[in-house]
Amino acid sequence: MASHECDVVVVGLGPGGEVVVARLADAGLKVVAVEAELVGGECPYWGCIPSKMFIRAANTLAEARRVEKLAGGVSVTPDFALVAKRIRDEATDNWDDSVAAKRVTDAGATLVRGHGRLVGDRTVDVDGETYVASKGVVLNTGTTASIPPIEGLAGTPYWTNREAVSTETVPPSLIVIGGGAIGLELAQAFSRFDSQVTVLEVAPRILAPEEPESSELLAKVFESEGIAVHADVTIDRVDHDGTRFTVTCGDKTYEADQLLVAAGRKSRIDDVGLDTVGVEVEKVLEVDDAMQVKDGLWAIGDIVGRGAFTHVSMYQAERVVKAILGKPLEAYDSSFPRVTFTDPEVGAVGLTEKQARDKGLNVRVGSGEIPVSSRGWLHSAGNEGLLKIVIDDDRGVIVGATSAGPTGGETLSGLAFAVRAEVPVATLLNTIYAYPTFYRAIEAALQDA
User: What's the pTM?
Assistant: First the structure.
């Protein structure tokens, strides 16, 4: 077994891991970058980037179909081959990570391919080679699709998000198990390419982590688009006869040509050797605001449970870099902005109303409807949406907000800043909101509160 010395070992080269590698190598540290799959991680190959390409294409079809209501007549013929080609081109010739790998080596780091596992403090084994880091190890091992233990599911040719975004054809019909962000985004995208889609969710409502108003909004939109949504169901078993899937939920059965399992994500921490450094863990790693697990060990991204999003991982990566380089750290940003890229988009930041009340805050809530706002009324077709703010009345600041609508994710930006900076509600009320814009609904929500 060969042993190599370095300053830092980074295990897992998703977006956050790449940031750590590039910044530390640029600072002159000797960095070893370890990746078991593709450099770049889930996001550019099977996650956010290809799925948003698919969603963008699907949304153009929906917008074209709205022409008849607003501007005349148009004939729309979906061609999924264009989507499949664009995804393959973006994934660098059928999921080849040569370009991303070159970024790592050009930064001055050593790229090691294989499964990285802690075998002691500041020590990582990769297929028999040992790397000893003087400063420490950064874990960024990410997640895999969580597969529920449904009777009959194992062994069937079901899809996860990876198969869904890498398919070259659209199934005539599709059942989606899971009404979270990933499941809903893909369900709507496939539906707009003329697949007959059914969504099954075991929670009482779809998009359960967000405000109930957002769940209700998407359920209504999906229904209007012909997508069947069944929440609060019990999934008893899955069968596949060689051609079609059957999903049994009590006395009801649902059939489709394909099944997509989008029932959440599972952290990849089972086999990274945490026991060898005395760290006990269940679902996610506990870290401090410097992203430190213990002396000489840091963790970022989905495995730390502070928000399973690329932007969160990259923010955390910058904090780790500062910590390793001995630079001062400002207070951790816990505002947690996030967007579900359905149509309408559902942006959210900070606490939901329930979370705020559970914290014992003196809550005041305000809301505004996008369709009755000036821009929403002008927009007409495809103008569904709402804006909701959650105020800590004792401090006079917004602690949470939801922005759902045609530009929900973009409209969220001002609200995200208001939550992060604790801008006084009085200041927000004494602010000019450009007319006619979607974000002017913020003013209506403030006045409602």
Answer: 0.95
